[in-house]
Amino acid sequence: MKLPVSELLLTEISRTDFHTKLPQHRRLYEALRGAILSRQLPFGSQLPSTRDMAQELKLSRNTVLSAFEQLLAEGYVTAQTGSGTFVADTLPDQLAQSAAENIPQPESGTRVLNNSEANKTSRKLSARGESMSAVAGGKLFEVQPFAPGDADYSAFPFKLWQRLQNKYWRAGRPELLDYGQTGGYLPLRQAIADYLRVSRSVRVTVEQVLITAGTQQSLDLCSHLLADHQDTAWVEDPCYWGARRALEANGLKLHPVPVDNEGMNPGAEDMDKPPRLIYLTPSHQYPKSVVMSLARRRLLLELAARNNAWILEDDYDSEFRYAGRPLASLQGMDYHDRVLYLGTFAKVLYPGLKIGYIVVPPDLVESFKTALYDFQRPGQMMVQAALADFIELGYFATHLRKMRLIYGRRRLLLQKTLYGALGGNIKLSPAEAGLHLVIQLPPQADDIAMAAMAAEHDISVRALSTYYLSDQREKGLVVGYAYV
Amino acid sequence: MKLPVSELLLTEISRTDFHTKLPQHRRLYEALRGAILSRQLPFGSQLPSTRDMAQELKLSRNTVLSAFEQLLAEGYVTAQTGSGTFVADTLPDQLAQSAAENIPQPESGTRVLNNSEANKTSRKLSARGESMSAVAGGKLFEVQPFAPGDADYSAFPFKLWQRLQNKYWRAGRPELLDYGQTGGYLPLRQAIADYLRVSRSVRVTVEQVLITAGTQQSLDLCSHLLADHQDTAWVEDPCYWGARRALEANGLKLHPVPVDNEGMNPGAEDMDKPPRLIYLTPSHQYPKSVVMSLARRRLLLELAARNNAWILEDDYDSEFRYAGRPLASLQGMDYHDRVLYLGTFAKVLYPGLKIGYIVVPPDLVESFKTALYDFQRPGQMMVQAALADFIELGYFATHLRKMRLIYGRRRLLLQKTLYGALGGNIKLSPAEAGLHLVIQLPPQADDIAMAAMAAEHDISVRALSTYYLSDQREKGLVVGYAYV
Predict the structure, then answer these.
(1) Cβ of B370 and A169 within 8 Å?
(2) Is the separation of the CB atoms in B132 and B445 below 8 Å?
(3) What's the predicted TM-score (pTM) here?
(4) Residues of chain A with C-beta less than 8 angstroms from the C-beta of B217
(5) Burial class (CB in 10 A: 0-12, 13-18, 19+), A187
(6) How far apart are CA B451 and CA B13, in angstroms?
């Protein structure tokens, strides 16, 4: 069987986007190999002689010879002395016969990216993959004016940070290049333990602090180690969206528990779904900004102890408090070792830093360390070392004070502007801490439509109702002020 | 009810490790709060007057007043004019009655860490958590002479790297501090695409390259997005241990398929467990170092296409090839878009860098981007920018050449030494690439005992049989030579 091989190849190698950076013989090899693999050149078909091919493709004969030799060496073609070069039958016997019919051919246009088409690829993704990528949450959370969750990173002390990092790069300590198997760089763990003990009344020794790549990774680790597939996790309703995503992705069944003015408020009916995990933001509920009352804290600690459940305390944004006395952490009130305390430097320093931490009960430390290493592989010890210095030398406290002032001013300005524009008609959430506030709306309001309208003016606020899992949705607009 | 409160407190606050960094009134507050939360001071019990307490504890009255005020403000105590200060009943009604009996009290000594005890905490960990932390794999993989998987990072160009990083820190571009939602820093994705196209014959456009935090994170993402809980994953038997861990942790059922001299060799019986995912190391099987044959490659590509299965091609250590022509990637031979190509800079540069990549089929790119952001949160854009320069300016190629020479010499030395010491009695695995080789042992050998013996001499080799999932175990010693 002779085929118009050269024409096929000419079309291919004359394409301007075809392996332009490769030498000619590699380009020819790629074209031939592609034709064989895609069955444009079927098993057993004969290739032209190297002399003919060189002539037809206007290449030197050596170029063609070199391509043939590589194909021969890799087993794509066989050479029979005197009779020429043939495409080898490399498909195993058991598959060769029915091959042509049975294999789904790539659809035309697969290589053309198209957002709306990409969303229809359900045949390809798993069920959990489908739900993980259905809503492009990232799109909703771009750094934009008023987007909740954003902080302002332009005030970051670039030069100082560079100096602290360079100290370690200059020292060139190879052990800081490794993954690190000890739960993190010890001086950083010590600095965090000291900070949490004083500022958040966390009951913590340095051994209990494990450095992770951030809150998502902390949640991933906790949900793997402390819960099994289909276990129940209680979440606040409304709830922080990233945490929901992490728990769901790891097979947990989420049970929403309503949030009132004292925080998460479990009732008798919730006890039908006893939790294995309870995800909480007690210092400053996300997104409603409620501070959990002492009575509710003790209730949840008791519930956790009785159910052998674990509380994941996400103490996000606790560093940014503008008024009032900071409330102690839930972890610090727990005398049954049922709370894991989660923190991050994403907002205080910058998100791309990818350093967070978990405070783990003492008897779980070894298991968490093992899984942290085996499963996630930590790293970034150089950055951890710089961060430890940043805290120990007092720069962290200075940076916090500075950002607190900046954000505090923006918060006041936003509050004034809103009251000024809308008068006594609006109610704002408590905003003594954090980087966002909520404009409360009446039940009949369509907050989703309002957020969409705002988006048309490039104002990125989020509808409060979208944070709910249940149908008992309050209406409002969640407005970040850190980035304006 | 009056209790010897002051004695209790004295014991506590005179402990040298009790909140030593706090001012006196905070220490007293912490001691009182602790006593209330742990029920050493029961509901309703009366505290001494501030005057008495100040006298007994040898503190100023203001210090005691300040502690009392904070407890009062937080609701831990109530004050009745004329009759004194009492511990408040903050436990909700529904729980208060049965509280004392039902709550498991913390076992004595919980706060004392002890390795052997920590391993017994099964009541606390989930089933998957138990299996994830049962074997302290990390311990086996410490950077030690001859440990497989280790590379030598002391040759890393610290100063050059520092210079490249500083360029971006000096520029102080705040957008490089964010998570990054686009799948990674574009010039880095471009540099990787160019490298893979030329060096590994990967069929790739820049859009298909997504930057992850390393191979564990790539595997985590792929197993979530492409497979569901209890789906079957084929793994090579023997298999890379980190991959097994990642797939299992995400609920996949592992089906071991034997590896012969041509790579993974699925038989008819394996088809009873049709795969959803197939994890492969075709260029250089881990740990046996076999190169997968062309016929086997085509078989697996066909199998994947027919079963709508996905192949995860882990092209680890492909950068380190000392002899022979590099084999093209499996991904480059796939015309059905069924292969995801996984790479990392962990070995080539350094592990703590935490930068790897996946090449994703075009129609999955958008879903992967969304999940990468929502689920893992990327970041480290500053480091990505420096790495892009490192590659583009040719330093990467130089570093690779240098390390290839160093490792090549160590490989030869190890081979010579082994042959010299053990003569013709030993067989070594092919070692044309990578950073380890396998000393093949007869079936009756006890490779586990031999590895343990070596460990006593601080030589960290691993028994080949420990890499197997099935009982069909070959015996041998896996020896790394990169770090010696």
Answers:
(1) no
(2) no
(3) 0.86
(4) 376
(5) middle
(6) 51
